[in-house]
């Protein structure tokens, strides 16, 4: 397929990006894995803007900039349980060329209902920083997503940073999906569980492609709190998941999180990939 004609502006600073976006009809070109140039008359390429590849863990917060590619999360660039969760999730995104070019923030801005990163952001209570002509504003992930492919981002704003609060040491993470092709899962579930003395102190459960916006299964999380993470507690938690198709996936994600929490095992890439070359 040949793309239609469009104008491409190459920006060298955030100010130049914002000036290009000011007409409200220009799209951001980050990894170019979802952008359909024929759907927009102009794109502004942010790939040469210095500093947008920020990836830093500071004071219990992981900060991610707009040019951090998916594949960075395949490595040990992020430590602790957060790095475990991201390694677990990222190897399911598309295939290697998509992960080499595509960006986490591009995926968040695009807001595909079957994308994994938006669910990670909502489930962990991330905060999104948007830069625009009137300065910056910070939006909670849960408020950012307003529907399939729609967000609170105004057309003249650039998503400049996403901040994830760190997961406590010893947190177990799990992920399970139903996917028939390399392009987006039909359904997926992810979970984090933190326990002290065998009793669950914190839990988060996210559902991918359960609704137009990312879903955090709070009712199921509440079932787990203050209780041992036994098979019967997991069964009770999954029973309150409204969409039946997700119950098995949530049970698998929670069981994985429990195993990792108990063994303290780090997530290794080879164990998690669905097959060679993915
Ligand atoms: C074959 C294939 C399989 C895929 N499989 C999956 C999958 O399984 N799971 C999954 O989650 N994704 C999948 N993707 C999508 C992939 O993750 C994309 O990388 C991602 O959706 C968009 O990131 P990007 O950097 O390529 O954004 P681009 O394509 O450059 O931009 C996408 C949109 O986001 C906007 N945008 C980008 N960055 C910003 C920013 N910083 N601020 C404001 N707006 C911005 C653009 O204006 C555009 O509208 C797949 C893609 C392909 C081609």
Question: Can you lay out the helices and strands and say which pair or pack?
Answer:
Elements: E1 7-10, H1 14-21, E2 26-29, E3 42-45, E4 55-58, E5 61-64, H2 80-90, H3 96-101, H4 104-110, H5 116-123, E6 127-132, E7 135-140, H6 141-144, E8 145-147, E9 150-151, E10 158-165, E11 172-178, E12 187-196, E13 199-208, E14 215-216, H7 218-224, H8 231-239, H9 247-263, H10 269-272
Parallel strand pairs: 1-3, 2-3
Antiparallel strand pairs: 4-5, 5-10, 6-7, 6-10, 8-9, 11-12, 12-13, 13-14
This protein binds flavin-adenine dinucleotide (FAD).
Flavin-adenine dinucleotide (FAD) binds at residues 27-35, 66, 93-94, 98, 102-103, 105-107, 109-110, 112, 115-116, 153, 158-159, 182-184.
Question: Would you kindly provide a written description of the structure presented here, covering whatever features stand out?
Answer:
Residues 1-169 form the FAD-binding PCMH-type domain. The structure is a single chain. The chain is an alpha+beta fold and 278 residues long. The protein folds into three domains: 7-45, no CATH class; 55-165, Uridine Diphospho-n-acetylenolpyruvylglucosamine Reductase, domain 3 (2-Layer Sandwich), CATH 3.30.465; 187-266, CO dehydrogenase flavoprotein, C-terminal domain (Enolase-like, domain 1). The chain has helices at residues 14-21, 80-90, 96-101, 104-110, 116-123, 141-144, 218-224, 231-239, 247-263, 269-272; strands spanning 7-10, 26-29, 42-45, 55-58, 61-64, 127-132, 135-140, 145-147, 150-151, 158-165, 172-178, 187-196, 199-208, 215-216. Strand 12 and strand 13 form a beta hairpin. Helix 7 (218-224) packs antiparallel against helix 8 (231-239) and helix 8 (231-239) runs antiparallel to helix 9. The chain is elongated. The protein starts with 6 loop residues before the first strand and ends in a 6-residue tail after the last helix. Residues 273-277 have low confidence and may be disordered. The structure holds flavin-adenine dinucleotide (FAD). The site of flavin-adenine dinucleotide has 29 residues, from strand 2, helix 4 and strand 10.
